[in-house]
Design brief:
Blueprint lengths: L2 H24 L3 H21 L3 H20 L3 H5 L1 H14 L7 H10 L8 H31 E2 L3 H4 L8 E2 H30 L7 H9 L3 H7 L2
Parallel strand pairs: 1-2
């Protein structure tokens, strides 16, 4: 398996998902919803699929058959509403679970600094612990907001599909923009503000934001596999 090919395909699939999801909701087309869900499945299973693992191919075939049925039956829009909730919830859990030991962002900074986490500046350790907690809280809050939106969106929301009338509703177009632009905008905004604060509190580590991302990318796939454990 070519790691560069896997990364390129994963980026392409990640870029395709919001387009497919928006088309599914704006056009109320269950088939596009099924394609968007298949896109997510491909992102998750991409590496074992490219490695030719039979179990991964069998699982993807089963998922594909289920999504094809959902797309044709018109019931793929409902599970699509829960995708942002699941992604944000898993991300929040990923940050939060590391607070029992070495926080996730502390591990990242340790890699960037090239020293064990125990040897980092205590002030930096405290900052990265609080930052890890902040990301966990932000992502959990966004997951909750997206769950509420999935419940009250009409006409294919979770409550509406169950025959329950929500006291407040949003349109599918509003849900689509909220699930895309609102989520990304808040996370990007939080990162930019935090990066500016970090540059003031711990100066001299990165020339600019481009240098930061270049150094992060330079840590390599093996580091990111280990740091997420």
């Amino acid at each position: 398996m070519n790691p560069r090919l896997a990364t390129t395909l994963r980026v392409a699939l990640a870029l395709a998902y919001p387009v497919l999801a928006h088309m599914a909701v704006s056009q109320r087309d269950s088939r596009f919803a099924a394609l968007a869900l298949a896109d997510i499945a491909l992102i998750v299973l991409l590496r074992p699929l490219l490695a030719g693992r039979a179990r991964a191919w069998l699982l993807f075939a089963a998922i594909g058959a289920t999504l094809a049925w959902l797309g044709e039956s018109g019931h793929a829009l409902e599970p699509l509403l829960l995708v942002p909730v699941a992604i944000l919830g898993l991300a929040a859990w990923g940050f939060g679970r590391t607070l029992r030991g070495v926080p996730l962002i502390t591990r990242m900074v340790s890699g960037l600094e090239g020293v064990p986490a125990a040897q980092l500046d205590p002030a930096l350790c405290r900052y990265t612990r609080r930052l890890t907690l902040s990301w966990a809280v932000l992502l959990a809050a966004l997951a909750l907001v997206n769950l509420v939106l999935a419940l009250v969106v009409v006409p294919h929301g979770l409550l509406a599909s169950a025959g329950v009338t929500a006291p407040v509703t949003v349109s599918e177009r509003q849900w689509s923009w909220a699930a895309g632009v609102l989520n990304v905008g808040l996370m990007v905004g939080f990162f930019l503000v935090e990066f500016a604060v970090r540059q003031r509190r711990f100066p001299g580590r990165y020339r600019n934001i481009a240098d930061f991302f270049q150094r992060m990318a330079g840590l390599g796939p093996a580091f990111w596999r280990d740091v997420a454990r």
